[in-house]
Amino acid sequence: MKHLLVIPDGAADHPHPDLDGRTPLAAAHLMHLRAMAFAGQVGRARTIPNGMYAGSDVGCMSALGFDPAKYWSGRAPIEAASMGVKLKNGQVAFRCNLVTIDKGVMKDFSAGHITTAESSELVGALQDALGGTVAFHPGVQYRHVMVGPSEMGEAQCTPPHDIIGKQVAKFVPKGAAAKALKKLMDQSVKVLAEHPVNKERQKQGKAPATQIWLWGQGSKPKLPSFEKTYGTSGALISAVDLVRGLGVLSGLEVIDVPGATGYYDTDYQAKAEAALVALRKHDVCVIHVEATDEAGHEGDIDRKVEALQRFDAELLGTLRQRLAGRAWKMLLLPDHSTPCHLRTHTDEPVPYLLFDATEPQPGGTFTEEAVASLDPVPAHTLVKQLLA
């Protein structure tokens, strides 16, 4: 028996007026997802434990079968693990976004989805100018990591994607370490302002990376081995450092897929093909897709529907076709909801699907409304059901 854990990031949503009061999951044409839901077990899961922030670090940890209330130590350390950055005792890691701030307003939390090549140059310049007590490590696109002494973690920081269109002065770090963090953020403005990468982006009419934004700090994480916990080896496919870091920390084989970008242009079929290859070696493969979450943050309801439809046709369709006649199971679980009208994550329960190709169930409908009356289960318990 082969097992797939599929995480369409932020796929759950709220009813939207542009979709006649439906959610993207209800409005999109999802032939393969509908067919599997019709023959599977549909339910409702709480990926974000009560009292915890609704981040993908928390939600994806839940989806992978680990209780965040027990194992979570911050977002940035997970991303650092993916980048090969090993935290020492007495160190703290911060997520370091390249952002676009104009006239004091957070215009773009991703600096116009700056490319990895461009951002690597900018992060290198930051390290040259500001490195010493702290160290800057380049990641993917706008997502980077800064490491510093543990006392710098004593601050309350706000994710930049939560303050799009708002004056940032109200959301700068607060707490004992706030002065040091704000100084670094302010110093980054001068470093980035005259950099050739930003000048070229502006010539092309693209958003420049005007400064860094620090958040999501945490100390060295301790996540148990997936294989020791569940008795089977596994692989993980994602273009996002955060999710890849969870794979590294839990001992999953993290697979690079050409064409996987973490954005709308990601190659869904290539991810499916890579998963099928991984299943020759492992009994479990995790596939994470970021595009649905990006659409939610951008408030683009049409893009979210389109991302769901491509996810269904190109990823789920490929898997169903290539696995036809074989024994396989799938858990499909968004890590959280990212409603387009809010442009940020929410901590409400999300729908999930358990599908067993060898044992059809009475089935149901995979939408938020269809599962709204069901009691939510802790999401970290679902992997055990998948592998049962």
Overall 3D form: globular
Q: What is the structural class?
A: alpha/beta
By CATH reckoning, the class of the largest domain would read Alpha Beta
The CATH architecture category of the largest domain equals 3-Layer(aba) Sandwich
Mean pLDDT: 96
* CATH homology-level superfamily of the largest domain: Alkaline Phosphatase, subunit A
Please report the number of helical segments: 15
CATH fold title of the largest domain: Alkaline Phosphatase, subunit A
Rg from Cα? 20 Å
Helical fraction equals 25-40%
Summarize the biggest pleated sheet: 8 strands, mixed
What is the strand content?
15-25%
Counting structural domains, the number is: 2
Order of helices and strands: EHHEHHHEEHEEHHEHEHEHEHHEEHEH
Number of strands: 13
Major sheet: order of its strands? 9-8-10-1-11-12-2-13
Uncertain runs are none
How far do the termini sit from each other? 10 Å
